[in-house]
Write the structure tokens for this entry.
Amino acid sequence: MTFKAEYIWIDGTEPTAKLRSKTKIMADGAELPNWGFDGSSTNQAKGHASDRVLKPVFTCPDPIRGGDDVLVLCEVLNTDMTPHETNTRAALVELEERFASQEPIFGIEQEYTFFEGDRPLGFPVGGFPAAQGGYYCGVGADEIFGRDVVEAHLENCLKAGLGISGINAEVMPGQWEFQVGPLAPLEVSDQLWIARWLLYRTAEDFKVSATLDPKPVKGDWNGAGAHTNFSTKAMREGYAPIITACESLGEGSKPLDHVKNYGAGIDDRLTGLHETAPWDEYKYGVSDRGASVRIPWQVEVEQKGYIEDRRPNANVDPYVVTRLLVDTCCTALEK
Ligand code: ADP
Ligand code: MN
Ligand code: MN
Ligand code: MN
Ligand code: MN
């Protein structure tokens, strides 16, 4: 007998990478081997030396096919087994090891927008819906668009065993959020990439597409972000490390080093309006949804907990944002 393995990888599309996948039929009991693909079709190679290697790094049950079938997230390698230049996971493996004793964990809030053709789901043909106000966490057919898809996606994430921790309708019609975590850096990132793949794949069956475009509708409509909640063991036990982490993110070139790696088109979204801080300013504050980094109110009350980096775009690479936060904050906390 056989089972199906869906090999999933992150491609080289600029400026925002896309997910790709293909199916391998496996003999029952066989181990998942490295596999190959045509890198010239994914912006990961030139035509004359186009072979790239898929190395399985994370496996979970395939909730779409069911049975013994699996989803297999892969790193992309060159044929000499070095990480391909588009492989941002390899660097996180090293950094996670270096700071493992600080026990960093992340919860990422993934916002996204459904589209039907060229319109966000719920936008009337040739016009706009009622202005924002009633849609966030709304209920009812006048406010909610795509809940059947969202419920199916949630069910699929749970069946796959992902650490999804919640969902909610967002501020713009057709815009939604799910959260993954809290989990260790590699875990949260691998699982977020799989949850994204499941989002596209689930929506496909409803003839709807999903996008991580950080500003899918220009003008007075909320963008889509990926608020990244972060703590270390010390931050979960005391308040001084919370402040140290917030301060470290504001030092020298750090604000720009982070923001320029927080997803393409970030200056379109971090305008200072729509619950954001301007992309070229750094500030942190308690309960402040206009800050770059928010300390949740209960964290101040309890004098321990976590911080929320509100800057990352919906299209951020989780391997990159978790690496940068661990690098900046854990280095400061080490001192
Ligand atoms: P918001 O109020 O900003 O919408 P959400 O409830 O959507 O917040 O998301 C908060 C995220 O923070 C969740 O994924 C949650 O699991 C995560 N989280 C909670 N505690 C911690 C912690 N100590 N460290 C890191 N992440 C955490
Ligand atoms: Mn072929
Ligand atoms: Mn949220
Ligand atoms: Mn949100
Ligand atoms: Mn948030």
